[in-house]
Specification:
The chain is an alpha+beta fold. It is built from 20 helices and 31 strands. It starts with a helix and ends with a strand.
């Protein structure tokens, strides 16, 4: 057995290590698991915005002006000329906005009048940013210098950043073939930045490169250039650490509040994960046409000044059919200008999303697999299954909470897959081990059955060979176990030199050997303490109840204090009957209420007077008494009678016991036989659900 167990342990270790290796290789060489992981957090992105508990706060410093269908209808023109853009730039500047980003590339001059108006508006505003587009590449060999127009080349050289990089930026994107706003307008603006986004392998935009390599310098994305200017951060105060962070030194936030630094987490490609605050509608939006016409009324203008003063405004086209949309975690179709707004908002609010480093992922995977391995050795199949599912759910739940509370993304899908694969392979190993030991188990089963038969014979000795013969009374009992040994029992014996009759009907929790041992202990203690406390030949009636109560307490305290770790208990009905007077002193410790049927057809239910026996010491119990008259029938039973089920799961119920009692009460024996028959008819071919025990007592003469 020891050798077989060691072999099984080694097999499990090898399988778990193999699973770890294979899944890790798949995770490192293909995007499949990373994509699944990203989709898991996409769900959380989408759900948290509608949650009052986890929804991120929106800083409405960042707003959006939409050139949308409504604006087109109001302006009665789908194609707006550059004079319209000039007018809105002027209006926004006069409203006192802090910065305005126009998500449009004015590639070349067009109409001289319109271009002049646009150029004049940009020069006067001094806070306008435009975009440019690169051809992005990660192939160093493709970094071929291509000739540019002199004016474009000189502007790109002037507007590039000479920032400090601590570490190798070879994995950063290369910016090539810039497509930019014509140079005269670009020079009049506050600056240009690239608008390019990089989708993940599944086509969803989740991150943005904040800077790319351009020749021997770096070029910022337009939202990153804008926010650095907005915070008053110079190029010399920007430090790039690939795979770690981009640090902005000495930023000054709105209101003149200075900070020592802002650390923006980035991956080795320079990408920042965008913390989308919610769907498109979560941003504050204004119509292009409304801003354009704001100057037509002084009162309207004043409201707009109050509304947009000191704001960062993103202006872009979001009309129906616009191609500048993509899928993001919160929306299937999201205007990509909104990404710029989300980037600015993420940095401004410092609500960064961070990813767990590789070593943390490896630790999570190792701990999870170690937990599965230990659980496979220490638990049953059912508990192992529940525990493994619990481990997987716990990892998912913990990852979800870390994201929702602190914006931390863990690589959780790969560990969960490892755990589930480990569970499946270990279950296969277990099945093979079980098949291998089937013959040994069969032999052990035969030995066990022989021992159980011996146990059954010993337990049978605890039941009275025959019930006491009492003049003027009828006693009948029935017992049938579910298994070879049982937790149910009944007893009937003389007390106080035959002056009293003690009887018990009890049901120990659970079934089988443990219940049978507990039954033997309980039965022996009850008999011993009853005979000890009521050993006088003459006992005053008023003392019987207290003595019975004392007997029950002694039995309970011994079991609870000595065998409390067994977590076993018994419900029982104990009675002391004075056959001469017909007085029954009894206590019901959490048991099914026995029923007394009078000749008048009145039913009396003898409800519990205390808790089950053995659960905890010093229980509070009561004893009661009832006078049994001629013709009265007392029926005590265990829940194996009322809970007996047929093949449809329908129980026999107490009501049917009552019906039997009402229909058949000519004698104690006939009543017991009638109930047993009706229970058997009800159960039919179904398996017996629980041990069945009944005892009936009838007074046949006064």
């Amino acid at each position: 057995m020891i050798i077989a167990r060691k072999h099984s342990i080694w097999v499990r270790l090898i399988l778990i290590f193999s699973i770890f290796t294979v899944v890790t290789i798949i995770d490192w060489t293909t995007p499949v698991l990373k994509t699944w992981n990203a989709r898991f957090f996409d769900i959380l992105f989408a759900k948290r915005s509608s949650s009052s508990l986890f929804a991120p706060e929106y800083d409405d410093t960042v707003v959006h002006v939409n050139l949308d269908d409504t604006s087109i209808q109001q302006l009665q023109s789908y194609y707006l000329n550059r004079s319209h853009h000039a007018e809105i730039i002027t209006n926004l500047a006069n409203m006192g906005v802090s910065a305005q980003l126009h998500d449009v590339i004015f590639v070349a001059p067009t109409n001289r009048t319109d271009d002049a108006a646009l150029l004049e508006a940009v020069k006067n505003s001094k806070d306008v940013y435009f975009g440019l587009a690169f051809r992005l590449s990660q192939n160093v060999k493709e970094n071929v210098e291509e000739p540019l127009a002199p004016d474009i080349d000189s502007y790109m050289a002037e507007s590039s950043w000479k920032v400090q990089a601590k570490g190798d930026t070879k994995y950063f994107f290369l910016g090539q073939r810039p497509l930019m706003t014509f140079s005269e307008l670009a020079r009049a603006s506050r600056g240009l930045g690239f608008l390019n986004l990089t989708a993940d392998h599944d086509g969803i935009f989740r991150r943005i490169p904040l800077v790319v390599r351009y020749k021997d310098a770096y070029y910022p994305s337009v939202p990153f250039r804008l926010i650095c200017d907005y915070l008053g951060v110079e190029q010399s105060e920007i430090i790039i650490e690939p795979g770690e962070r981009i640090t902005l030194l000495n930023p000054v936030k709105p209101g003149g509040k200075a900070s020592e630094r802002i650390d923006i987490p980035i991956d080795k490609q320079g990408n920042m994960i965008i913390n989308f605050i919610g769907p498109w509608d979560r941003l504050k939006h204004y119509h292009f046409a409304d801003v354009l016409r704001a100057s037509e009324s002084q009162s309207v203008w004043n409201r707009w000044v109050e509304e947009l003063s000191d704001k960062i405004v993103i202006v872009s086209e979001v009309t129906t059919g616009s191609t500048d949309v993509g899928s993001v975690p919160t929306d299937i179709a999201y205007p990509l200008s909104g990404v710029s707004a989300s980037v600015i908002h993420t940095i401004l609010s410092e609500s960064f999303i961070r990813e767990s480093p590789l070593f943390v992922t490896l630790i999570i995977e190792a701990v999870a697999l170690a937990a599965v391995f230990c659980l496979s050795l220490l638990s049953s199949t059912l508990f192992f299954t529940i525990s493994v599912l619990g481990v997987a759910c716990l990892m998912l739940l913990t990852s979800a909470l870390l994201f929702l509370k602190v914006g931390f993304i863990t690589q959780v899908i790969a560990p969960v897959i490892m755990v589930l694969l480990a569970y499946l392979t270990i279950q296969i190993v277990r099945a093979l081990d079980n098949a291998r030991s089937l013959k040994q188990s069969e032999l052990k089963r035969n030995m066990f059955e022989r021992e159980m038969e011996i146990g059954r014979q010993i337990q049978a000795g605890f039941f009275p060979e025959k019930l006491p013969d009492i003049s003027g009374w009828e006693l009948a009992a029935f017992f049938r176990p579910t298994r070879q040994v049982s937790g149910d029992f009944y007893d009937a014996f003389f007390v106080a030199d035959g002056k009293l009759i003690g009887f018990v009907v009890a049901d120990v929790c659970d079934k089988g050997v443990g219940a049978a041992l507990f039954m033997a202990l309980t039965r022996s203690l009850l008999r011993a303490f009853t005979l000890q406390n009521l050993n006088e030949s003459e006992i005053e009636p008023e003392k019987i109840g207290p003595k019975l109560q004392h007997t029950i307490r002694l039995t309970n305290d011994y079991i609870a204090e000595t065998h409390g770790n067994a977590n076993m208990f018994a419900t029982l009905f104990v009675g002391l009957l004075d056959p001469d007077s017909g007085t029954l002193f009894y206590t019901n410790c959490g048991h099914e209420p026995p029923i007394v049927k009078r000749d008048s057809d009145k039913l009396i239910f003898m409800k519990p007077t205390g808790p089950a026996l053995g659960m905890f010491p010093a229980i509070k119990i009561q004893t009661k008494e009832i006078l049994l008259l001629k013709g009265d029938m007392l029926l005590a039973f265990t829940d194996g009678v009322t809970d007996a089920q047929n093949d449809k799961g329908v129980q026999f119920t107490t009501q049917k016991v009552v019906e039997c009692l009402e229909q058949e009460s000519s004698s104690a024996e006939s009543l017991v036989a009638s109930i047993v028959k009706k229970v058997d008819d009800h159960v039919a071919d179904a398996q017996q659900f629980d041990d069945i025990t009944l005892m009936a007592i009838k007074k046949i003469r006064q």
